[in-house]
Amino acid sequence: MEKPGGWFLERKLLKEPAPFFCFDMENSKANPQLENGYVRIANELFEAMGKYPFSGAELKILIVVIRLTYGWGLKQNVISFSKIAYLSSLDARYTKRVVKRLVQDKVLIKYKHQRNNILGVNKDYLSWRLWKTQNISGQIDTAKMAV
Predict the structure, then answer these.
(1) Which pLDDT tens digit goes with each residue over 24-81?
(2) Residue 104: which of 79, 75, 127 has the closest Cα?
(3) Per-residue pLDDT at 8
């Protein structure tokens, strides 16, 4: 019988790095199927994400927020920082700082309802802060985005 906490608790106590997946990768294959769920996102927004100069942590957090919103067919959802940290494998305090930066850059929309964080993706990617600061002439070339 397996101990409470399983391999994660044992590895945490031994200070060993935990594997990325919780199963034996040598004897298993990934087999994603659309029938098991998918995230519906507009191609235009997805391509804008690819062109925007996100850091690794910012992109991880954005993907998690998209999964927890669009993945459930919602535009915004109640999402805790600890849940984002867990799903993105980032420190909770660092996650909070990165979310704050994404909100300031107008990539994410955040507001409070009582004690809950309501998060969503700002679909107006042309309003994301870096698009406006990167172009010296002050004009945004949307023709390149539509390709």
Answers:
(1) 556 678 888 888 888 899 999 999 999 999 999 999 999 999 999 999 999 999 999 9
(2) 127
(3) 44
Show the tokens assigned to 24: 């034996």
Within its chain, how far is the Cα of 27 from the centroid? 29
Instruction: Please name the fold of domain 54-147.
Output: Arc Repressor Mutant, subunit A (1.10.10)
Cβ neighbours, 10 Å, residue 125: 20
> In this model, does residue 114 exceed pLDDT 80?
yes
Residue 2: C-alpha distances to residues 58, 68, 104, 145 (Å)? 36, 31, 45, 52
Asked whether the CA dihedral 20, 23, 24, 27 is positive or negative, the reply is negative
103 vs 96: CA distance, rounded Å: 11
